[in-house]
Amino acid sequence: MRFHQTTLDNGLEVIAELNDAAHSIAAGFFVKAGSRDEAADLAGVSHFLEHMMFKGTATRDSLAVNLDFDRVGAKHNAQTSEEDTFYHFTSLPEYLPKAFDVLADILRPTLREEDFETEKKVIIEEILMYMDNPMSVAYEAAKAAHFGGHPLGNSILGTVESITALKADRMRGYFDSLYSPSNIVLGFAGKGDWDELVKLAASHCGAWAGAGAPARLAEPVRGARAFQSILREEDQQETIVGVGDGPPLESEDRYAAHLLATILGDHASSRLYWTLIDPGCADGAELSYQDYNQAGGFYTFLSCEPDEAQANLERIGEVYRQAMAEGVSDQELARAKNKVLSRSVLRSERPMGRLGTLGFNWVYRREYQSLEREMEAFSNVSAEQIRRLLNEWPLWPMTITAVGPTTDLHAPE
Amino acid sequence: MSASSATIHQHEYPNGLVLVAEEMPSVRSAAFTLLLPAGAAYETAVELNLGGGAATMACEWIARGAGSRDSREVMEALDDLGVGHSESAQTIHASLSAATIGANLVPALEVFADMVIRPRLDDREVEPIRALCLQNLRSLEDDPASKVIYELRERHFPAPWGRPSPGSADDLARLSPADLRAFHQAAHRPNGAILGVAGAVDWPRLKDEVGRLFGDWASRPGLTLIERPSGPRIDHVHRETQQIQIAMALPAAPVGDADYYHARAAAAILGGYASARLFTEVREKRGLCYSVYASYEGQRERGAMLCHAGTSVERAQETLDVMLTELRRLAVEGVGAEELDTMRAGLKSSLLMAQESSMSRSSALAADWYFLGRVRPLVEISAALDALTAESVSDYARRFLTLDDLTILTLGPNPLKIRLPG
To answer: Is this complex's ipTM strictly greater than 0.90?
Structure first.
């Protein structure tokens, strides 16, 4: 593995982790723009814009964008989160120049009015699709309740109303403000030659202009610990999302937070698994840690029969309170490390599995984190550190949102 | 396409278990996929005649205590080895799969050998398993896009080849520990089982260790399945959802058939990627939906092309009409040379990139053996893809894609009009 980094004259940073043993190369643009950067009347614009980026450039219409990726067998996609939009592809090394030509091209889109109106319909369909998914509904509502007026509570997709009302010129303004080269990192992972990559980046992105993006405020936030239940009569299961505060991505405690979530709420053989899944009390019970810029969250996901929901919430409360009182054992911690390390190794065998970690580390920490360094950071976490973490970021009580056929639920003690 | 640097080995043990392995020089991990002839289809075997869900319950049962370890010790042993794993039953197979770093592969196989040969099958685990499976079934009801595909497959394939592994609530409620034991005894057998292993492995040692671990697994007689008609071909399931789910299936060539690559090509060109016809016509040009695709499902005796879209009530009719028009166009007009090249580039890239994942290689090895009794080297697949022409794929489409053979299922607030283009 070799790490390289440079900055183009226009401020675009380029990084790469190169590995001759790889069979492919992954490339991606990390744009620091997400739902937390949206004003209230622009709800959903980051994600809508992500779709629009594929709808055409000065030289390609949307059909040509898709075709030019597919012609070289490049697997391309994009994701929008609360704080980032990530455009990426994976291709065989020999097709990198052609696939990169398309990816770089779409980062300077035309945002035509006609495409905007067609794609608006697709976005609304995507919103409706998620409305048919109870976990998505619960997750969005729980985040909004937990973060209150803080921008991290913004919906990524927006609403049918906000998307319907959105105008193309507002999207263009948002693009101009946030897609300047200094707000974007270009990353590569896999099999490639650094000098060639820099040449490629300079020739495709060197002429990009744009004033510096406005600095994100990223105010720290403590959640509301609110309780709500939302009726969905048609659902069979009760679906519950809990949110608690956690360390921000700037904190070294993120490793301990990840291990704690693994011990308590991994999908297999965690404390929640043995308490809820193994005895058949629920068909889903997990805890995961999500880090954000200057904030963090512990998310609890529960799916169970409506009649068992209250009892299951009490059981989860007990698991969390016990962890807060007694911490975790060295043996549990050792097992969690094994799991996490092994997953890291497996994920890293694919260039695409490395690219996300590589890029987001650079965007937020300006640091190269090799797989070895990441593994070392996890290995160094002690049970004592997890105890301190639980003191600083108590898991319980938490914000709770339940959706499903019953509203006969209340916040557990 | 460059030749693969991987080496493929195979061995059949006296009890019938087949080991297929690939040494992958560029990875540190190793993965395996164990396919057992113990999917939901075998619930209907003449010798068993069990309710739907038995295969899934049996698969869950074997993981809950095996050999010297109780349920928790099994999971902890795998955690200690850093093994990511899953055990599930599908229609034809029960599949046990796992991945970890290469050095831990054989110790992981030891745990799985206990699960497969010496499960405790403790009666006290059956009620929790039943409760879990019933809840999984309810969650599936809340997931319309998955639900519609299970229902489509059951209507399209002759029974039991589309039988849904989650089972039914009534059957799950009735299955007894004795039923599950009977299923396990008959279906979890080495003759007909395939163990695919890929990654950082040493073949001579692996072959010996698998022989040591699985050698005393006794073979059993095969089970008798009777094929029965399914249907209905056109159907609607009522749900008060935001979107209507549209699912369609057409017969396609099976995996071992001379037309196999034609079938793959036709499905991919119709709806396998972003520039494919369905995505272009339904989403890009008309903005009718978010998700639309076509895919190929192969079985030994038959194959199918499955199509799916989810869209709001007011756009659903047009979505269905456009999808049917595209099916018709493919059948009548065939494919062009340029889109065939695009399809080829996509499939070849996927094949080569799969060389970076021990997990995907281990499942491909096991699947190849099941379908063909051998593993296709990458160069062979690549050559077969190169041999396709626009004429040969178009000819396949004319022969196979008859709209009268369509199974169409919608799920949502209202049914749609089926207007087959003339």
So the answer is: yes
